[in-house]
Amino acid sequence: MNLLQIPKLELHCHLDGSLPLAFVREQLGDSEIMQENLQAPKDCSSLAQYLERFALPIRCLQTKKGIEQAGYVLIEEVAKENVRYIEIRFAPLFSVNAMLSCREVIESLLLGLEKAKHDYHVNANVIVCAMRHHTLEQNLEMLSIARELLGEGVCALDLAGDEAAYANHEFQELFAQAKRLDMPFTIHAGECGSISNVREAMDMGAKRIGHGIALMKDRDLLQEFRKKRIGIEMCPTSNLQTKAIKDWSSYPLFDFLENDLKVSVNTDNRTVSGTTLTQELELLCKGREDSERFVCTLLGNAVEMAFASDEIKHELSKEIKI
Prior knowledge:
alpha/beta, TIM Barrel
Protein backbone atom coordinates (compact mmCIF):
# COMPACT_ATOMS: atom_id res chain seq x y z
CA MET A 1 0.00 0.00 0.00
CA ASN A 2 1.42 3.35 -1.07
CA LEU A 3 0.31 5.73 1.68
CA LEU A 4 1.55 8.76 -0.21
CA GLN A 5 -0.64 8.04 -3.21
CA ILE A 6 -3.87 6.83 -1.62
CA PRO A 7 -6.68 9.43 -1.39
CA LYS A 8 -6.85 10.90 2.11
CA LEU A 9 -8.73 13.48 4.16
CA GLU A 10 -7.86 15.50 7.23
CA LEU A 11 -10.14 17.02 9.87
CA HIS A 12 -7.72 18.76 12.26
CA CYS A 13 -5.18 21.08 10.63
CA HIS A 14 -4.41 24.60 11.84
CA LEU A 15 -3.61 27.15 9.16
CA ASP A 16 -1.04 29.18 11.08
CA GLY A 17 0.80 26.09 12.31
CA SER A 18 1.01 24.63 8.80
CA LEU A 19 2.51 27.43 6.71
CA PRO A 20 5.64 26.43 4.76
CA LEU A 21 8.96 28.07 5.62
CA ALA A 22 9.31 29.61 2.14
CA PHE A 23 5.92 31.28 2.47
CA VAL A 24 6.74 32.74 5.90
CA ARG A 25 10.07 34.06 4.65
CA GLU A 26 8.43 35.67 1.64
CA GLN A 27 5.58 37.25 3.60
CA LEU A 28 7.86 38.67 6.29
CA GLY A 29 10.68 39.59 3.91
CA ASP A 30 13.19 37.75 6.06
CA SER A 31 15.35 35.05 4.51
CA GLU A 32 17.06 34.47 7.87
CA ILE A 33 14.03 32.73 9.35
CA MET A 34 14.90 29.06 9.81
CA GLN A 35 12.80 25.90 10.11
CA GLU A 36 13.61 25.72 13.82
CA ASN A 37 11.94 29.11 14.29
CA LEU A 38 8.66 27.55 13.16
CA GLN A 39 8.97 23.99 14.42
CA ALA A 40 8.47 22.68 17.95
CA PRO A 41 11.80 21.90 19.66
CA LYS A 42 12.76 18.26 20.08
CA ASP A 43 12.64 18.70 23.85
CA CYS A 44 9.25 20.48 23.80
CA SER A 45 7.95 20.29 27.37
CA SER A 46 4.29 21.34 27.13
CA LEU A 47 1.42 22.64 25.02
CA ALA A 48 2.25 26.18 26.16
CA GLN A 49 5.80 25.89 24.77
CA TYR A 50 4.44 24.30 21.60
CA LEU A 51 2.13 27.29 21.07
CA GLU A 52 5.09 29.69 21.12
CA ARG A 53 5.90 28.64 17.55
CA PHE A 54 2.79 30.38 16.20
CA ALA A 55 3.99 33.97 16.63
CA LEU A 56 5.79 34.27 13.27
CA PRO A 57 3.14 32.63 11.05
CA ILE A 58 0.37 34.74 12.60
CA ARG A 59 2.28 37.82 11.42
CA CYS A 60 1.81 36.49 7.86
CA LEU A 61 -1.97 36.62 8.24
CA GLN A 62 -2.50 40.35 8.67
CA THR A 63 -3.55 41.33 5.13
CA LYS A 64 -6.18 40.08 2.70
CA LYS A 65 -3.48 38.98 0.27
CA GLY A 66 -1.46 37.20 2.96
CA ILE A 67 -4.48 35.28 4.24
CA GLU A 68 -5.62 34.37 0.74
CA GLN A 69 -2.16 33.14 -0.24
CA ALA A 70 -1.82 31.20 3.02
CA GLY A 71 -4.93 29.21 2.19
CA TYR A 72 -3.70 28.62 -1.34
CA VAL A 73 -0.22 27.38 -0.38
CA LEU A 74 -1.60 25.05 2.28
CA ILE A 75 -3.81 23.36 -0.31
CA GLU A 76 -0.83 23.26 -2.67
CA GLU A 77 1.09 21.39 0.04
CA VAL A 78 -1.60 18.85 0.95
CA ALA A 79 -2.28 18.11 -2.72
CA LYS A 80 1.27 16.72 -2.94
CA GLU A 81 0.20 13.77 -0.79
CA ASN A 82 -3.22 13.32 -2.41
CA VAL A 83 -5.34 14.79 0.36
CA ARG A 84 -8.76 15.08 -1.28
CA TYR A 85 -10.59 16.94 1.49
CA ILE A 86 -9.37 19.02 4.41
CA GLU A 87 -10.93 21.05 7.19
CA ILE A 88 -8.66 23.98 7.97
CA ARG A 89 -9.07 25.71 11.29
CA PHE A 90 -7.94 29.19 12.14
CA ALA A 91 -8.73 32.00 14.56
CA PRO A 92 -10.11 34.96 12.57
CA LEU A 93 -9.64 37.38 15.47
CA PHE A 94 -5.86 36.94 15.29
CA SER A 95 -5.99 38.73 11.90
CA VAL A 96 -8.50 41.48 12.66
CA ASN A 97 -6.83 44.89 12.63
CA ALA A 98 -7.46 48.49 11.62
CA MET A 99 -7.51 47.45 7.95
CA LEU A 100 -9.33 44.11 8.22
CA SER A 101 -12.73 43.20 9.63
CA CYS A 102 -13.56 39.72 10.88
CA ARG A 103 -15.73 39.02 7.85
CA GLU A 104 -12.98 40.18 5.47
CA VAL A 105 -10.50 37.88 7.23
CA ILE A 106 -12.71 34.82 6.76
CA GLU A 107 -13.65 35.71 3.19
CA SER A 108 -9.99 36.18 2.27
CA LEU A 109 -9.19 32.66 3.37
CA LEU A 110 -12.22 31.28 1.55
CA LEU A 111 -11.08 33.02 -1.63
CA GLY A 112 -7.64 31.44 -1.42
CA LEU A 113 -9.13 28.01 -0.85
CA GLU A 114 -11.49 28.40 -3.79
CA LYS A 115 -8.64 29.37 -6.11
CA ALA A 116 -6.61 26.41 -4.88
CA LYS A 117 -9.55 24.04 -5.42
CA HIS A 118 -9.67 25.14 -9.06
CA ASP A 119 -5.96 24.44 -9.50
CA TYR A 120 -5.51 21.32 -7.34
CA HIS A 121 -9.01 19.81 -7.11
CA VAL A 122 -8.92 19.58 -3.32
CA ASN A 123 -12.11 20.31 -1.40
CA ALA A 124 -11.63 22.39 1.73
CA ASN A 125 -13.81 23.78 4.49
CA VAL A 126 -12.96 26.20 7.29
CA ILE A 127 -13.45 25.66 11.02
CA VAL A 128 -13.32 29.00 12.82
CA CYS A 129 -11.61 28.92 16.21
CA ALA A 130 -12.85 30.79 19.23
CA MET A 131 -9.84 31.35 21.49
CA ARG A 132 -9.79 30.53 25.17
CA HIS A 133 -8.06 33.77 26.17
CA HIS A 134 -10.51 35.98 24.26
CA THR A 135 -13.57 37.44 25.97
CA LEU A 136 -17.01 35.91 25.57
CA GLU A 137 -18.12 39.02 23.71
CA GLN A 138 -15.25 38.71 21.22
CA ASN A 139 -15.94 35.04 20.59
CA LEU A 140 -19.70 35.56 20.25
CA GLU A 141 -19.19 38.34 17.72
CA MET A 142 -16.84 36.15 15.68
CA LEU A 143 -19.34 33.28 15.84
CA SER A 144 -22.15 35.52 14.60
CA ILE A 145 -20.13 36.60 11.57
CA ALA A 146 -18.91 33.09 10.79
CA ARG A 147 -22.45 31.72 11.01
CA GLU A 148 -23.42 33.96 8.08
CA LEU A 149 -20.88 32.05 5.98
CA LEU A 150 -21.90 28.57 7.10
CA GLY A 151 -22.27 26.40 4.00
CA GLU A 152 -20.28 28.88 1.93
CA GLY A 153 -16.90 27.51 2.96
CA VAL A 154 -17.27 27.72 6.72
CA CYS A 155 -18.35 24.40 8.22
CA ALA A 156 -17.99 24.58 12.03
CA LEU A 157 -16.79 26.29 15.21
CA ASP A 158 -13.91 25.16 17.44
CA LEU A 159 -12.40 26.20 20.77
CA ALA A 160 -8.60 26.39 20.79
CA GLY A 161 -5.75 27.73 22.89
CA ASP A 162 -4.22 26.82 26.24
CA GLU A 163 -6.59 24.17 27.58
CA ALA A 164 -4.72 23.89 30.88
CA ALA A 165 -5.32 27.57 31.66
CA TYR A 166 -8.96 27.85 30.53
CA ALA A 167 -11.33 24.95 31.28
CA ASN A 168 -14.14 24.06 28.88
CA HIS A 169 -16.89 24.85 31.39
CA GLU A 170 -15.99 28.54 31.04
CA PHE A 171 -17.38 28.46 27.48
CA GLN A 172 -20.83 26.99 28.02
CA GLU A 173 -22.56 30.18 26.90
CA LEU A 174 -20.56 30.29 23.67
CA PHE A 175 -21.57 26.76 22.68
CA ALA A 176 -25.14 27.23 23.83
CA GLN A 177 -25.30 30.08 21.33
CA ALA A 178 -23.70 27.90 18.66
CA LYS A 179 -26.47 25.35 19.20
CA ARG A 180 -29.13 28.06 18.95
CA LEU A 181 -27.58 29.14 15.66
CA ASP A 182 -27.34 25.54 14.35
CA MET A 183 -23.58 25.94 14.05
CA PRO A 184 -21.81 22.57 14.19
CA PHE A 185 -18.82 22.46 16.50
CA THR A 186 -15.81 20.52 17.67
CA ILE A 187 -13.89 21.35 20.85
CA HIS A 188 -10.25 20.83 21.82
CA ALA A 189 -10.55 18.60 24.89
CA GLY A 190 -8.37 16.18 26.80
CA GLU A 191 -5.07 17.32 25.34
CA CYS A 192 -3.75 18.41 28.73
CA GLY A 193 -4.95 15.48 30.81
CA SER A 194 -8.30 16.90 31.92
CA ILE A 195 -11.06 14.29 31.81
CA SER A 196 -13.55 16.91 33.01
CA ASN A 197 -12.88 18.94 29.87
CA VAL A 198 -13.71 15.88 27.77
CA ARG A 199 -16.98 15.27 29.61
CA GLU A 200 -17.92 18.96 29.39
CA ALA A 201 -17.28 18.97 25.64
CA MET A 202 -19.65 16.02 25.29
CA ASP A 203 -22.26 17.62 27.54
CA MET A 204 -22.11 20.85 25.54
CA GLY A 205 -22.98 18.89 22.40
CA ALA A 206 -19.69 18.59 20.50
CA LYS A 207 -19.92 16.30 17.47
CA ARG A 208 -16.14 15.82 17.68
CA ILE A 209 -13.31 16.63 20.06
CA GLY A 210 -9.73 17.51 19.26
CA HIS A 211 -7.08 15.13 20.65
CA GLY A 212 -9.16 13.53 23.43
CA ILE A 213 -6.20 11.75 25.05
CA ALA A 214 -7.63 12.02 28.57
CA LEU A 215 -10.60 9.91 27.56
CA MET A 216 -8.48 6.85 28.32
CA LYS A 217 -8.86 7.67 32.03
CA ASP A 218 -12.60 6.98 32.17
CA ARG A 219 -13.96 3.74 30.67
CA ASP A 220 -17.57 4.71 31.33
CA LEU A 221 -17.17 8.01 29.54
CA LEU A 222 -15.41 6.20 26.71
CA GLN A 223 -18.49 4.04 26.24
CA GLU A 224 -20.69 7.15 26.20
CA PHE A 225 -18.56 8.50 23.36
CA ARG A 226 -19.03 5.23 21.50
CA LYS A 227 -22.80 5.25 21.95
CA LYS A 228 -23.11 8.89 20.91
CA ARG A 229 -20.68 8.39 17.99
CA ILE A 230 -18.60 11.43 18.90
CA GLY A 231 -15.51 11.77 16.72
CA ILE A 232 -11.99 11.99 18.15
CA GLU A 233 -9.47 13.94 16.07
CA MET A 234 -6.11 12.48 17.09
CA CYS A 235 -2.74 13.95 16.11
CA PRO A 236 0.03 11.48 17.06
CA THR A 237 3.22 13.51 16.57
CA SER A 238 1.71 16.63 18.11
CA ASN A 239 0.34 14.62 21.04
CA LEU A 240 3.85 13.42 21.87
CA GLN A 241 5.40 16.87 21.43
CA THR A 242 2.90 18.62 23.72
CA LYS A 243 3.29 15.87 26.33
CA ALA A 244 -0.32 14.83 26.01
CA ILE A 245 1.30 11.38 26.22
CA LYS A 246 4.61 10.38 27.81
CA ASP A 247 5.60 7.91 25.10
CA TRP A 248 4.14 5.81 22.29
CA SER A 249 3.45 2.87 24.59
CA SER A 250 0.79 4.97 26.33
CA TYR A 251 -0.90 6.22 23.13
CA PRO A 252 -4.62 5.31 23.39
CA LEU A 253 -5.53 5.42 19.68
CA PHE A 254 -5.47 1.65 19.25
CA ASP A 255 -7.52 1.10 22.39
CA PHE A 256 -10.04 3.68 21.19
CA LEU A 257 -10.37 1.86 17.86
CA GLU A 258 -10.83 -1.49 19.58
CA ASN A 259 -13.71 0.11 21.49
CA ASP A 260 -15.28 1.25 18.21
CA LEU A 261 -14.69 4.97 18.77
CA LYS A 262 -14.75 7.22 15.71
CA VAL A 263 -11.04 8.04 15.64
CA SER A 264 -9.43 9.97 12.79
CA VAL A 265 -5.73 10.73 12.29
CA ASN A 266 -4.54 14.26 11.59
CA THR A 267 -1.44 16.45 11.57
CA ASP A 268 -2.61 19.27 13.88
CA ASN A 269 0.16 21.59 12.65
CA ARG A 270 2.17 20.40 9.69
CA THR A 271 5.02 22.87 10.10
CA VAL A 272 5.14 23.19 13.89
CA SER A 273 5.06 19.40 14.25
CA GLY A 274 7.22 18.78 11.17
CA THR A 275 4.87 16.20 9.72
CA THR A 276 2.40 15.28 6.99
CA LEU A 277 -0.69 13.13 7.01
CA THR A 278 1.25 10.41 5.17
CA GLN A 279 3.92 10.43 7.87
CA GLU A 280 1.29 10.15 10.61
CA LEU A 281 -0.24 7.11 8.94
CA GLU A 282 3.17 5.55 8.33
CA LEU A 283 4.00 6.00 12.02
CA LEU A 284 0.83 4.18 13.08
CA CYS A 285 1.18 1.40 10.50
CA LYS A 286 4.64 0.29 11.63
CA GLY A 287 4.66 -3.41 12.41
CA ARG A 288 1.02 -3.96 11.47
CA GLU A 289 0.01 -6.81 9.17
CA ASP A 290 -3.45 -5.30 8.64
CA SER A 291 -2.29 -1.85 7.51
CA GLU A 292 -4.70 -1.58 4.61
CA ARG A 293 -7.77 -2.38 6.71
CA PHE A 294 -6.45 -0.19 9.55
CA VAL A 295 -5.97 2.86 7.32
CA CYS A 296 -9.33 2.30 5.65
CA THR A 297 -11.01 2.32 9.08
CA LEU A 298 -9.33 5.58 10.05
CA LEU A 299 -10.21 7.28 6.76
CA GLY A 300 -13.74 5.89 6.88
CA ASN A 301 -14.19 7.38 10.34
CA ALA A 302 -12.95 10.73 9.03
CA VAL A 303 -15.47 10.67 6.18
CA GLU A 304 -18.30 9.88 8.58
CA MET A 305 -17.27 12.59 11.06
CA ALA A 306 -16.43 15.33 8.51
CA PHE A 307 -18.40 18.57 8.53
CA ALA A 308 -18.87 18.12 4.79
CA SER A 309 -21.89 17.93 2.53
CA ASP A 310 -23.41 14.54 1.77
CA GLU A 311 -22.27 14.99 -1.82
CA ILE A 312 -18.63 15.44 -0.83
CA LYS A 313 -18.83 12.52 1.61
CA HIS A 314 -20.24 10.31 -1.11
CA GLU A 315 -17.41 11.22 -3.46
CA LEU A 316 -14.79 10.65 -0.74
CA SER A 317 -16.28 7.25 0.06
CA LYS A 318 -15.95 6.25 -3.58
CA GLU A 319 -12.35 7.50 -3.83
CA ILE A 320 -11.24 5.82 -0.63
CA LYS A 321 -13.30 2.72 -1.52
CA ILE A 322 -14.95 2.49 1.87
